[in-house]
């Protein structure tokens, strides 16, 4: 499922920043135990591929396995700050935040292999749909890769 993202990373990012650093299967299993959710397959693949790549293409944002639990609190604060009525469910996994003013998440309660994602930033009143996880990942990789020096 992540083949397009992996190919883009190999072509445009790895030559400049190196290969990504992933989390171990044990780390992913421990995360699932702590949060009480079974992670969707595509998200598990992402974590094993680049879930610890804190000095890579996503440096400066919170895309990593170590951020999952704190990302939830960031999103709660953001929703409160903008006065959103959105109800964050216990099954919502906040996989991305950036400097407290944007966040993305999905519902991990279903059996979706590649879950649909929501996104919000501080200029919005309510969250919007932003595609499935692989689409969000690929779009962010493309955008950030286009900013790398050539």
Automatic annotation (TrEMBL):
Pfam families given in the database record: SMI1_KNR4
Domain Knr4/Smi1-like positions:
22-139
Spell out the protein name for this chain: SMI1/KNR4 family protein
